[in-house]
Amino acid sequence: MMVRQIAVGPMANFTYLVVEEASKEAMVVDSGWETEPIVKAVDEAGAKVAYVVATHGHFDHVSTLGKLARQLGAETVVHESSRADADLKVGDGSELGLGSGKVRVLHTPGHTPDSVCLYDDAHVFTGDTLFVGSIGRFESESAEEIFTSIHRVILRLPLSTMMYPGHDYGEVKCRTLEEESRSNPFLVARDFTSFASLFA
Fold it and tell me: What pLDDT score was predicted for residue 200?
């Protein structure tokens, strides 16, 4: 899959265009601000977008989801627990096909109850669950939930996986899970007691 990282809005958000290169079938991950840079990237790639997927329901990730989908002729996708309107609601393990490839939905509650990551066998789009050097702080969920999502879901993926976060908050814009596991204190903390102490 080809990945295009697109900076949007005033909160250092990242939107992603993910394209299966042979078919040019594509998906967009998150859309919370202006749609023009995303539509431009789609046009430049010659892509046909099938899905616009929200990693969670916060306004900076979904406020233009429907508008973008209409502009691109795509379906909107959210987790089944989300309150956001969508054409398709998916659960943990659901797969979205793009040409000969597929993207798997990983339910990763913690930042929000409806948080998901998206994994295509080489890249993982972590939304606000995991940032470069940090994590998305939990709201209605618990520290235990986000610990489980990070250590029992994301870190079970191959460490060669390239991790793409929902915001440009780190020292670099993306890096492998192996690099992240060595440098992010929330990933270095392998037991819950150590993890929870980071919130003190």
Answer: 67
Provide the whole-model pTM.
0.96
Q: Are 39 and 8 in contact (CB under 8 A)?
A: no
Residue with tokens 């508008």: 67
Domain ranges of the chain: 2-197
- Euclidean distance between the first and final Cα of the chain, in Å? 40
Q: What is residue 140's predicted lDDT score, i.e. its pLDDT?
A: 52
Q: List beta partners, residue 45.
A: none
Low-confidence ranges of the chain (pLDDT < 70): 139-141, 200
Per-residue pLDDT of 151-163, as tens digits, reads: 999 999 999 999 9
Residue range 124-135, pLDDT digits in tens = 999 999 999 999
Please give the positions annotated as active site.
Answer: 56, 58, 60-61, 111, 128, 167
Planar angle of CA 196, 164, 142, nearest 5 degrees: 25
- What's the Cα-to-Cα distance from 31 to each of 38, 106, 165, rounded to whole Å? 8, 19, 14
Cα distance between residue 2 and residue 45, in whole Å: 10
DSSP assignment letter at 124: E
Q: Which CATH superfamily is domain 2-197 in?
A: Ribonuclease Z/Hydroxyacylglutathione hydrolase-like (3.60.15.10)
91 Rama class: left (phi>0) / alpha (psi -120 to 50) / beta: beta
